[in-house]
Amino acid sequence: MLRFVTRTLVARWNAEPDEDGFSLMELMVVLVIIGLLATVVIINVLPAADQANNTKARADISTLESAVEQFRLDTMAYPTTQQGLNALTAPPTDLTRPERYRQGGYIRRLPEDPWGNAYRYEMPGRQSGGAYDIYSLGADNAPGGENENADIGNWE
Question: How far from the centroid of its chain's Cα atoms is residue 82's Cα?
Fold first, then answer.
């Protein structure tokens, strides 16, 4: 019996150690799979971010349009291009009837477009064919453009 135990212990001592952990090949396969999944997610998420920016810009423009219309109803005129959208937060100094300006303004603060730029205002409107234009120049902050660089305004 002692011989058997001794042989077993010696065989165990000389045997290859147990293989714990992962081989390099297994790790590479896992990394490739993670890379493929990340690529699929990025391809599907990036267009959604562009669409979200456009949706936010359209919502902001709609809010600004409502405030401009309220300004017109109270003061009997649209803000001039020189007064701009700032006329919605504080009364312009050149109002003909300043007592008609709503206390607290027509909007709490002016939003920035999704790309961090100020919305633009022109009166009379050129693009919309209406009384005024409120618009963003898009991600490139330059007139014209396509996709995320396209202008977004109240004429759409």
Answer: 29
According to the 3-state scheme, what is the secondary structure of the chain? CHHHHHHHHHHHHHCCCCCCCCCHHHHHHHHHHHHHHHHHHHHHHHHHHHHHHHHHHHHHHHHHHHHHHHHHHHHCCCCCCCCHHHHHCCCCCCCCCHHHCCCCCCCCCCCECCCCCECEEECCCCCCCCCCEEEECCCCCCCCCCHHHCCEECCC
Residue that is written with structure tokens 């150690």 in the block: 17
What is this structure's pTM? 0.69
The residue type found at 66 is S
The answer for residues whose C-beta is within 8 angstroms of residue 121's C-beta and 6 or more apart is 64, 68, 79, 81, 84, 85, 132, 133, 134
The stretches in the chain having pLDDT less than 70 are 1-20, 128
Query: Rounded to an integer, what distance in angstroms lies between the CA atom of residue 23 and that of residue 147?
Result: 46
